[in-house]
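Q: Second attempt. The first request was missing the SMILES, so the protein and zinc ion are both included now.
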Amino acid sequence: MPFCPNCGKQNQGNVLFCTYCGKAMPQKSSPAPISQPVIQTNTSPQRVPAPKSRVSNNTKKAVITGILIVGLIIIVLLIYYPGIFPWKW
Ligand SMILES: [Zn+2]
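A: Got both inputs this time. The predicted holo structure:
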């Protein structure tokens, strides 16, 4: 039951406008999703764990990413240029 910020009277349920004075009622749900992504992007780089584990994880990730990229390039080449490699399927 929200109270009108303009006239101070209590309204029934979730109304967009005050039933007494016609002023737009503040909606609780709308501002929260807009502010959440901004907070996440600002805080995520600061939440990085200890330097030791971060370096090893990054090198592992870099190696895995490199292998994946090379594999993707080979797959793309095979799809677009089937005769580029000596072996055949
Ligand atoms: Zn009102």
